[in-house]
UniProtKB/TrEMBL annotation:
UniProt name for this protein: Heme ABC transporter ATP-binding protein
A Pfam family that the UniProt record links to this protein: ABC_tran
Protein source organism: Pseudolactococcus insecticola
Lineage: Bacteria, Bacillati, Bacillota, Bacilli, Lactobacillales
Stretches assigned to the ABC transporter domain: 10-245, 262-506
InterPro entries with a match to the protein in the record: AAA+_ATPase (IPR003593), ABC_carbohydrate_import_ATPase (IPR050107), ABC_transporter-like_ATP-bd (IPR003439), ABC_transporter-like_CS (IPR017871), P-loop_NTPase (IPR027417)
GO CC annotation: plasma membrane
Length: 509
């Protein structure tokens, strides 16, 4: 069937997707015009990824029609999507670490294009594409040796190499540093300048306003409206998304810090290849305070958190928890000493994706009553507890029995935070707590962190988001090159000052 408005490279008409009895997409309409950047805005679990998975051939609609360049199409596989010129850049990269950039880009494409791994020719083509769109890469580098930002460029090149005209980006900036985000924004603009069309899923309202032409709002599985982005501010966009007013600043009382709970002294920790990542670092976190650890990715913050939680050996120095030595203790021993941890990589360290949401919520407690009796798991108790936590923390999903992989990214994060806060720890360490979360969920998580502080917990928040650090912290420690470059109070500093410390500068007193 033709006759559609050919200006629309994509038209989704009354598209629904039902999982069991759960309606994830409810008669959604979406029109994407050629040469535009079209943002999709919606709360965690609203149904954005589900909708895009139907465009990229990973899921088939339960009902509704999809038109590509004016013709109705059945997109029943990723290769069909690719043939139709649709490419998706996923949030979690799908690259092989041990292969080169070129090998990753041509992987899976050799036979369809009739090329027998002609690496030289492919390298040439990749260089041409990378120059045309400003996607700098080193074709011969191994993927494991390049930065996250470069890995994302490889993902983008992969879709372009397969001839993508319509590119879908699923929260592309969630894993990038501020500098890499700026580079990506330029790349997106280059892509549309060259005639590509882009669908952009992001929770970052600033990014939507910086690059998008139009935005479609999705709420609880339904498309609410499509509007021009020009002239709208963050508050308006946020309110359109959640359907009520949103506050960007979390109210909090002045902290009333008590005894030192976490005492890190002259700590040295190596990174995986043996170089020093944490270099004689000292830091204290007291009961009843939130210390925010700000810094550019790769300055030792991951290794520091891994050392505190027993996941990485300490070379020298000491870590004390309420005056007790925990240096190089096993992770389970540290957990048992009332330390909770929300890890930065929720898929690798936070969840077992194939287990149910309920089982994941019991991961730290399943071996004890009331979750188990005489060595047998009590599923009634496990599931009941999960239902309570899901209601309390607004974890939206079909039920507590679905695998964790079936929760949306933001809801997976809320599930981990619920599990860790519920353990009522003395020390709560949260890394990138709101990565991938919508503004409403961020507001809620920030409130819960402050509530934990007010209940007397020591809280260490590691984040690349300066707004987040400034919003929740009582003290901000800036880490640079494995050392604490400075400690400041949020009310007495600015983002600019933090930026100076983050690159290793010092503040004039
Ligand atoms: N295979 C599945 N089985 C059951 N429910 C599913 C499945 N896949 C997705 N869902 C549910 O559908 C809803 C929509 O999820 P989706 O991932 O599309 O949301 P999203 O808008 O992309 O959210 P986020 O911003 O958090 O990534 C969620 O409640 C999710 O739990």
């Amino acid at each position: 069937m033709t006759g559609q408005n050919v200006q629309n490279v994509i038209e989704m008409r009354d598209v629904s997707k039902v999982f069991g009895t759960f309606v994830a997409n409810d008669q959604i309409n979406l029109q994407v015009q050629k040469g535009e950047i079209h943002a999709l805005l919606g709360e965690n679990g609203a149904g954005k990824s589900t909708l895009m998975n139907m465009l990229s051939g990973l899921l088939e609609p339960t009902s509704g029609e999809i038109f590509v360049n004016g013709s109705v199409e059945k997109i029943d596989s990723p290769s069909k999507a690719s043939k139709l010129g649709i490419g998706m850049v996923h949030q979690h990269f799908m690259l092989v670490d041990a292969f080169t950039v070129t090998e990753n880009i041509i992987l899976g494409n050799e036979t369809t294009r009739g090329i027998k791994l002609d690496t030289k020719k492919a390298e040439q083509e990749i260089l041409e594409l990378s120059q045309k769109y400003g996607l700098e890469v080193t074709p011969s580098a191994l993927v494991r040796d390049i930065s996250v930002g470069q890995q994302q460029r490889v993902e983008i090149l992969k879709t372009l190499y397969r001839g993508a005209e319509i590119l879908i980006f699923d929260e592309p900036t969630a894993v990038l540093t501020p500098a890499e985000i700026l580079e990506l924004m330029t790349i997106l603009k280059n892509l549309v300048k060259e005639g590509k069309s882009i669908i952009l899923i992001t929770h970052k309202l600033d990014e939507i306003r910086a690059v998008s032409d139009r935005v479609t709002v999705i709420r609880r599985g339904k498309s609410i409206e499509t509007v021009d982005v020009a002239g709208r501010d963050n508050k308006t966009l946020a309110e359109m998304m959640v359907g009520h007013s949103v506050s960007f600043v979390t109210e909090k009382k002045v902290a009333n810090p008590g005894k030192v709970v976490l005492d890190i002294s002259h700590l040295v920790v190596n990174e995986s290849r043996g170089a020093q990542a944490v270099k004689s670092l000292s830091l204290k976190v007291r009961a009843g305070e939130i210390v925010g650890l700000a810094g550019i990715d790769g300055n030792g913050q991951s290794e520091l958190v891994q050392a505190i939680t027993g996941l990485r050996p300490v070379v020298t120095g000491s870590i004390k928890l309420k005056d007790k030595e925990i240096t190089n203790h096993k992770p389970r021993q540290i957990t048992e000493m009332s330390v909770a941890h929300v890890p930065e990589d929720r898929h690798r360290d936070g969840l077992v994706l194939q287990l149910s949401v309920a089982e994941n919520m019991a991961l730290q407690t399943y071996y004890k009553a009331p979750m188990s009796h005489l060595g047998f798991l009590d599923y009634k108790a496990i599931n009941q507890k999960a239902r309570e936590l899901m209601a309390e923390f607004d974890v939206r999903g079909a039920s507590e029995l679905v695998p964790a992989s079936a929760l949306s990214g933001g809801n997976q994060q809320k599930a981990i935070i619920a599990r860790e806060i519920d353990r009522n720890p003395d020390l709560l360490i949260v890394s990138q707590p709101t990565r991938g979360l919508d503004v409403g969920a961020i507001e809620y998580i920030h409130k819960r962190l402050i509530q934990a502080r007010d209940e007397g917990k020591a809280v260490l928040v590691v984040s690349f988001e300066l707004d987040e650090i400034l919003n929740v912290s009582d003290r901000i420690a800036v880490i640079h090159d494995g050392k604490i470059q400075g400690i400041v109070r949020p009310a007495e500093t600015t983002k600019q000052e933090l930026g100076v410390l983050m690159v290793g500068g010092t503040l004039k007193s």
